[in-house]
UniProtKB/TrEMBL annotation:
The chain crosses the membrane at residues 185-206. This is Alpha/Beta hydrolase protein. The keyword Metal-binding does not apply. Keywords: Hydrolase, Lipid droplet, Membrane, Transmembrane, Transmembrane helix.
Amino acid sequence: MSTPTSKIHLRTPPEPGRKAAAKTYIIYFLTGNPGLIEYYRVFLTHLYGVLTQDTASDRSVEFQVYGRSLSGFEMSGAETKTHKYRKPPPYGLQDQIRHAEDDVVEVVEAVRDAGGKDVRVILMGHSVGAYMSLEIVRRLRAHGLAGEDFETRIAGVVGLFPTVVDIARSESGVKAAPFLKNPSFALVVSLVAGFITMLMPLALLARLVSFVTGFPADAACTTASFVKSPYGVQQAVHMARDEMFQIDTDIWDEDVWGAAAEAPASKHPHPRPVLRFLFAKKDHWVADETRDALIRTRGRFSRWDVQEVEGMEESWKPAMEVDETEGWPHGFCIKHGVPVAERVAGYVRRIVAQDASRK
């Protein structure tokens, strides 16, 4: 049984004599919690395949899909030690955002160094990853306004089953909050998990996970590896505690959410990113009233990737879709990666089309 990887980077290898694409869009994926990128391999691979099936011979646009496990979720101590961060795990939510922001900048630089011409980023986040995506946009635009970073251009953000406000009001948030209030809870849970699984072979633990949860083999293996990893369980609970008490009110202004035509234009050299969100009909981590209030105050209802159902007169607002037909769960990556990828590919195409009309 192979150990899950901590990084996925899908791209077409350079070929001698092949013309470089006019624009390169990096889809930078931010995971939910637990922050293991391996959970999303089927989703990301299918998304890459759908997006690139029409661009093999078209050199106007090239797509790359990149994602990594969040800090502290590495599968081995050797990987953890390679971090440049000044403290060991567990890392809090603000640490994760800083690490991801740095990584986005480094990935863009690496793609440019490899020959990429006009390199732009579409941040894509699941659950808390959507919160992190909006925070990265806010921070990068603040750096740009301060003259510190004009190079990293965020063309769009896709939030999948996003937990961006009032997570403590969700069904699971209400249940988890009393336990997470105890600052020692993360360490206690990790010690108990480590004691129970210490002598259990990975393959046996994976079969047990599959039996108990109904996970397919790949997700069960990833979960088993996560439980036996050096910091994974403690990192997940430690980060969940931060999520519970930091993801509450809407903290972003119009420079992140967008602004009406009559509002003052942004002073940032890059246009505001195009935002799209996909919500579940029922989500145990997002209360119905929280979702509906966010759509009402910040977004506009959409359906699929073509027809805007409401809010056409406010086309500057983020398009927010509620899955009314498929029944996709919050943890879509376990069993529903392929159909969600096909829906999200439409979002990406719309973002690219809208971005192409801007300088």
